[in-house]
Specification:
Layout: H1 2-13, H2 19-48, H3 53-60, H4 63-96, H5 102-114, H6 117-128, H7 135-140, H8 149-160, H9 162-175, H10 178-185, H11 190-219, H12 222-228, H13 238-247, H14 251-287, H15 294-301
Helix pairs in contact: 2-14, 3-14, 4-8, 4-9, 4-11, 4-13, 6-8, 6-12, 8-11, 8-12, 9-11, 10-11, 11-14, 13-14
Length: 302
């Protein structure tokens, strides 16, 4: 009888393991998170404030640090909207239409996930560098891409463009085309269909993709390191500036800038959690709505 009585409670708990095993697994997971996530994060802020707030603020007020902060924000401000447009267009095309080459387009969307960021940076050097395919023409017209801000933005766009598309494609495929087709039958234009039907249905996935894209754009190192040229005060983003400071044994300044990156990451994580909570709350509210009565539905049609 005791084993029979224990079975329903374990099923309700979602597992058939004993309580000791569950607590052991939870403890291992928490220990792993503390060791590999919380401890390094605490070390960054501890080292940044090792010499006090005055040294911390002085490191952040350095002109080179401000230049790196501005360039990082500029790169994110440009790259994220470009990926927003591309992600929506690619997701709409892949999820809503059938055409030749659809599998190839899907593969291209996933390409930055399989290519090393360093290789992506080298590709831009090969194409736009002084000895690259378009290098002589760019030099003749005094146009700088590699070792300049445009190259940093292009490299960042490349490594971040799958994030929004990959959040939207499965969502839009699951939703289907029924609502869009109904809107078009009722006389809505293509823009009206997108603005009033498609966009509200995918807004949470879109916001989530934008958050991930922005986080990667601000923290990208590999591709940007190749195309930046490491020109201090001009082409160094915050991750590159941290590397330079650390290599020059300016550990307090390096950790101060790194702590700012960590704060941006924590803010991104907080926004992501708030979006997920709001989405779950909205879904819960929709699920708790009472079913519409046939009589009321018939009255509404009249």
């Amino acid at each position: 009888m005791s084993s029979v009585n224990k079975t329903p409670s374990r099923v309700q708990a979602g597992t058939t393991e004993s309580r000791a095993v569950r607590w052991l697994l939870i403890g291992l997971a928490l220990a792993f998170m503390a060791l590999f996530l919380l401890l390094p994060l605490a070390a960054v802020f501890t080292e940044a404030l090792r010499n006090g707030w005055a040294a911390y603020l002085e490191a952040l007020q350095d002109p080179d640090a401000w230049s790196a902060i501005r360039l990082t924000l500029l790169t994110a401000v440009v790259a994220v909207p470009l990926n927003l447009v591309f992600g929506i267009a690619a997701a709409w095309c892949i999820a809503k239409y059938e055409f030749k080459g659809k599998a190839f387009l899907t593969t291209l969307v996933d390409l930055p996930f399989s290519v090393s960021p360093v290789v992506a940076g080298l590709i831009y050097v090969l194409v736009f560098g002084a000895q690259g395919w378009f290098g002589p023409w760019l030099q003749a017209h005094d146009i700088k891409i590699v070792f300049a801000v445009p190259g940093i933005i292009l490299a960042t766009v490349f490594v971040t463009f799958p994030f929004i598309a990959r959040e939207l494609i499965p969502l839009m495929q699951a939703q289907g085309n029924d609502e869009e087709q109904a809107a078009i039958v009722l006389g809505a234009s293509g823009w009206q269909t997108f603005w009033y039907v498609t966009l509200p249905n995918m807004k949470w996935g879109l916001i989530y993709g934008v958050i991930l894209c922005n986080a990667r754009a601000m923290g990208e190192f590999g591709a940007v390191s190749v195309v930046s040229g490491h020109i201090r005060g001009q082409t160094n983003t915050m991750p590159l500036h941290v590397e330079i400071l650390y290599n020059e044994y300016q550990s307090v300044a390096a950790f101060a800038v790194a702590s700012l990156l960590a704060l941006l990451a924590l803010v991104t994580l907080a926004i992501k959690s708030a979006v997920e909570w709001r989405h779950e709350r909205e879904l819960k509210g929709v699920a708790e709505l009472p079913p519409e009565r046939p009589a009321a539905a018939g009255a509404a049609t009249h």
